[in-house]
Design goal:
heterodimer, A: alpha+beta, Rossmann fold, OB fold (Dihydrolipoamide Acetyltransferase, E2P), six-stranded mixed β-sheet, 9 helices, about 25% helix, about 35% strand, B: mainly alpha, MetI-like fold, flat
Chain lengths: ~350, ~300
């Protein structure tokens, strides 16, 4: 039985549909990321699970119990907000123990639990400080502590790291991963940052305009995107898309004509047919720089920009297929303006049909 | 010394002279502003000083022609008369009761009403809000007669409840508006976090919203108290016996068979203003804040 389940859930705000007929199952103990661009409905989905938004149509179950109409406090969930929402007039101790205080727990219990959580999150020296006296990372941990003290069945995170600087974000990501490993509690994490999703999640749910685009593990989404949206959203730099024509189909292999006239072989499903105009997707690291005279080159082009990142090099190459981004390991000996050949790694390309679905 | 060095020195000297001239100019300007402010301050404060000094003069000095900035014969007779031969003690007590009650009721009601309009959804919420805003269009003195008729029908004329009840309207509406605006400005996340933690609406109000706005509450308490203490018209209309008067009305009772005694009248006025002056001096920052808030609303 899934731990959290949404069945055909729709959320409408007047005439605007934020989430449309969405069904999702989250396994117990998993770390599931809801990933997508701004306005895709991921926060709305999270808030519906939390009970902060009413579900227009559909049902929500947590641990088999229908919580569709249950108030947030009765759902055994805890939430960490993007802004942390730490009560500014309360100390760290009071913030952490707030839910216990509201429930009428004895002061001794509140104090003990707050201390226990503070120890886990290394917040002991800050218990008597107010949020304004804390750094961003410390506030983040207090927000997690406030969620932790409730001993929830499900943790909900709404872009908790987006207010932190890059270095702190990396550090907090590690702490969150460790927390999940230690607690084993189901976590649902909303983010627009694919790096966070890829590094933290067991399962990623990619959302686009209120619908699920694809659900899968990080590597599944990366290596086998179900559609152009997922292919372009996952991966940085993003995938190159090239307009191609299917020349012939032989079983599960198609021969496609690239701009410039050369052909390459691609695995396809049943949908592809000769003559179809489609798009070929190839990731920057699956394009290899070869000699322009190399007969096996898929394209010829000229390098316009070279970005040297130390452990890799990014090349922006103008080709008959438009500008393509190429990623090479280490420091490539290529200069701006230099003519190059690009070879496509045939086993790593994807073909997308007119609707954007993978063929 | 080389020519270049000499030229450099000349430039430096010219710059220094210009800087000094600019400073002098600024000082002069500042001096003029300060003197002007001083003049206005003296003009504004003089009546207060004059009133205070008059209370320490014997009556014959008060009515004597000419201006005497300091008593020739310093006396506390006016204060002794007011304190010993009038019911100022009862007037103070009545003022304290009515002002305290008005403040307590207004702030309590305003907190609840402001929170409800800001955070709760109920039928008629918008209409309720517009009614409160519209009440500002009605000048309170114009309601004196309707209030009198109403209090008369309640049999509350010449009673403290009769003095208190109509005073709840104006400061009440203002306080609701101020609270509503401040509660609106509390980020939604705080509410949602507390709701997830299981807080009821009462707990949300008293443990989150109100503590986050203690400054506003203090400011409103002070300004409501001062307003209620200083009110004259309604308490004057609503009571007709000395034992029910508050201090502002009691001032009108300080006279004797020989007519007006300026020193005694001013003495009772000084004593009436004293508590409010102390409150203001102690909490002037909060009072200023409250005045700015209400000016923003009314403007």
């Amino acid at each position: 039985m899934p731990h959290v389940e949404l069945r055909r859930v729709t959320k409408r705000y007047g005439s605007v549909t934020a989430v449309s007929d969405l069904s999702l199952s989250v396994e117990k103990g998993s770390f599931t990321a809801l990933l997508g661009p701004s306005g895709c409905g991921k926060s709305t989905l999270l808030r519906m699970i939390a009970g902060l938004e009413e579900i227009t149509v559909g049902d929500c179950f947590i641990n088999g119990v229908d919580v569709t109409d249950a108030p947030p406090a009765k759902r055994r969930i805890a939430m960490v907000f993007q802004s942390y929402a730490l009560y500014p007039h309360m100390t760290v101790r009071q913030n952490i123990a707030f839910s216990l205080s509201v429930a009428g727990a004895p002061r001794k219990t509140q104090s003990e639990r707050a201390l226990e959580v503070a120890r886990i999150l290394q917040l002991e020296p800050f218990l008597d400080r107010r949020p304004a006296e804390l750094s961003g990372g410390q506030r983040q941990r207090v927000a997690i502590g406030r969620a932790l003290v409730r001993k929830p069945e499900v943790f909900l995170f709404d872009e908790p790291l987006s207010n932190l600087d890059a270095k702190l974000r990396v550090q907090m990501r590690l702490e969150l991963a460790k927390l999940h490993a230690d607690l084993g509690t189901t976590m649902i994490y909303v983010t627009h940052d694919q790096t966070e999703a890829m590094t933290l999640a067991d399962m990623i749910v990619v959302l686009d305009k209120g619908r699920i685009s694809q659900v899968g593990s990080p590597l599944e989404l990366y290596n086998a995107p179900a559609n152009k949206f997922v292919a372009s959203f996952i991966g940085s730099p993003s995938m190159n898309f090239i307009d191609v024509r299917i020349a012939s189909v032989n079983g599960q292999t198609a021969s496609v004509v690239l701009p410039g006239g050369r052909e390459t072989m691609v695995r396809v499903g049943a949908e592809g047919a000769p003559g179809d105009s489609t798009e070929l997707g190839v990731r920057p690291e699956h394009l290899t720089v070869v000699d322009p005279q190399d007969p096996t080159a898929s394209f010829n082009g000229a390098v316009t920009i070279v970005e040297r990142l130390g452990n890799s090099t990014l090349l922006y190459v103008d080709t008959p297929a438009g500008q393509l981004i190429v990623e090479g390991k280490g420091n490539l000996d290529v200069k701006s303006g230099e003519p190059v050949g690009l070879k496509v790694m045939e086993s790593q390309v994807h073909l997308f049909g007119p609707t954007g679905s993978v063929l | 010394m080389t020519a270049a060095a000499e030229a450099g020195q000349e430039v430096a000297a010219a710059l220094a002279t210009r800087r000094l001239a600019r400073l002098r100019h600024l000082d002069l300007f500042g001096l003029v502003i300060t003197l002007t402010t001083l003049v206005f301050a003296v003009v504004w404060a003089f009546p207060l000083y004059w009133g205070l000094v008059t209370t320490f003069k014997p009556e014959y000095e008060v009515v004597r022609p000419g201006v005497q900035l300091w008593p020739e014969h310093f006396t506390l007779e006016a204060y002794v008369h007011v304190l010993m031969r009038t019911k100022i003690g009862i007037w103070y007590l009545n003022s304290l009761i009515t002002s305290g009650a008005v403040t307590a009721i207004v702030v309590t009601m305003a907190v609840g009403a402001g929170y409800a309009i800001s955070q709760l959804k109920f039928p008629g919420r918008r209409l309720f809000w517009w009614t409160i805003l519209a009440s500002f269009m009605i000048p309170i003195p114009s309601l004196t007669v309707p209030h009198f008729i109403l209090m008369s029908q309640f049999h509350w004329i010449n009673t403290l409840p009769g003095v208190i009840a109509p005073q709840l309207i104006a400061p009440g509406a203002l306080s609701v508006i101020i609270y509503k605006q401040f509660f609106d400005s509390v980020p939604k996340d705080f509410r949602e976090a507390a709701v997830i933690d299981g807080a009821s609406e009462f707990q949300l109000l008293f443990r989150i919203y109100l503590p986050m706005n203690w400054g506003i509450t203090t400011a409103l308490v002070i300004i409501t108290f001062i307003g209620a203490w200083n009110l004259f018209l309604w308490p004057f209309v609503a009571v007709n016996t000395e034992d029910k008067m508050n201090i502002t009305v009691g001032i009108t009772q300080v006279h004797d068979a020989f007519g007006v005694s300026y020193a005694r009248d001013l003495a009772v006025a000084m004593l009436a203003a004293l508590p409010v002056a102390i409150v203001y001096l102690a909490f002037q920052r909060r009072v200023t804040q409250a005045i700015m808030l209400s000016a923003g609303i009314k403007g």
